[in-house]
Amino acid sequence: MTILWDNEPGASDRYHFALGHVQLLGSAPLVHRALDDDAQSDLVVIGPMVNLDEASLLVESVRGVRPEVGFILLRHRLDVTTMTQALRSGFREVVASDDAPALSDAVRRSRDLTARLAGHQSGGPAAQGRIITVFSAKGGVGKTTLSTNIATHLALSNQRTVLVDLDLSFGDVGISMQLMPSNSVHDAVSMSGSLDGEGLAQLVTHHEASGLDVIAAPTDPSLADRVSAQVVSELLRVAAAHYDYVIVDTPPSFTEHVLAACDVSSLLVLIATLDIPAVKNLKLALETLDALGSPKESRVIVLNRADVKVGLRDEDVVQAIGAPIAVSIPASITVPASVNRGVPLVLESPRDPVSVALREIADKHIRGRFGTPVEDTQRRSLFSRRSR
Ligand SMILES: Nc1ncnc2c1ncn2[C@@H]1O[C@H](COP(=O)(O)OP(=O)(O)O)[C@@H](O)[C@H]1O
Ligand SMILES: [Mg+2]
């Protein structure tokens, strides 16, 4: 059942198109009580006239006890301050109150996420280890640089490694490694439900120079929509059963594909840079991960272009995000140069300071963590901790 917190008469009718039948309530204590009384209530939509501070307090108090409950905030006007406060408090979405289609979409996404979280709480299948997702909510910060180089270095170190490009619309792993993939993540769709080692082998393109296998993004961006989150989970789980390491490159937002990847990952590599928007996005991403129940100890934060002097210092970033930086990567012209040549930097110039830092991520933070046999109990999903 969906709860609508709104004081205006006729509110249930106004949003009927997007929300269907709702329980209309007029105050935070009433919403609280309704959530306590009914475990089936898993979506709360908060009307445009409700005070944001009061709404935020409610979300903050509920999200620790019932993380599967989705909150959507309606506002007459969307502005950055409101969005930031709302997302920080744990709202899943902020939607303009007169945009019924956007509200419908937000409701659908929230229900999907609730269903996935509920699946985990009832003890969904245990994930295998060694799926590592490289993520940042901002573009151009170095996700593809990190994922291709970390994966290449692991492959060069004789670890069976596959790199999966989940930036399904704009993926550039193939091109930055000079590969000509004939298949892509999209080809997993037709094998959905029965993907096995043989099927997996058909999806990969082999990078001769390093021994790395790559599953590329589709060349046609419109195919991204045809790949469901379920296909992504299946693909990554099957890959984890056949390789030592599965490295996942991502688009710059929490798409359903990214959530599915985080969900089966044992480690997230998150990227910061020394600019305010990137730090803000990282902070929001960390808070979103917290709200989803992802354990802090399964994250490694990397500062890319760490030596660029732009007014922000490492300490400012650490203070803003409230988490330590594991590795700092310097800025260097050698990085775009290697991308243009289509040869990963760790392969082309292993002594370059950027390569040294990238190897440190792979050797210390990935192999150091997973290199020794991992007990099954330790190989758990990032989100499974809530189910304990
Ligand atoms: N440490 C670095 N020094 C210099 N250029 C870098 C560095 N890291 C990334 N770049 C460049 O920045 C651009 C964006 O990097 P990329 O890895 O594609 O980011 P993302 O995948 O997050 O969008 C690329 O041109 C890349 O060569
Ligand atoms: Mg990229």
UniProtKB/TrEMBL annotation:
<dbReference type="GO" id="GO:0016887">
    <property type="term" value="F:ATP hydrolysis activity"/>
</dbReference>
<protein>
    <submittedName>
        <fullName>Transcriptional regulator</fullName>
    </submittedName>
</protein>
<dbReference type="InterPro" id="IPR025669">
    <property type="entry name" value="AAA_dom"/>
</dbReference>
<dbReference type="GO" id="GO:0051782">
    <property type="term" value="P:negative regulation of cell division"/>
</dbReference>
<dbReference type="GO" id="GO:0005829">
    <property type="term" value="C:cytosol"/>
</dbReference>
<dbReference type="InterPro" id="IPR027417">
    <property type="entry name" value="P-loop_NTPase"/>
</dbReference>
<dbReference type="InterPro" id="IPR050625">
    <property type="entry name" value="ParA/MinD_ATPase"/>
</dbReference>
<feature type="domain" description="AAA">
    <location>
        <begin position="130"/>
        <end position="289"/>
    </location>
</feature>
<dbReference type="GO" id="GO:0009898">
    <property type="term" value="C:cytoplasmic side of plasma membrane"/>
</dbReference>
<dbReference type="GO" id="GO:0005524">
    <property type="term" value="F:ATP binding"/>
</dbReference>
<dbReference type="Pfam" id="PF13614">
    <property type="entry name" value="AAA_31"/>
</dbReference>
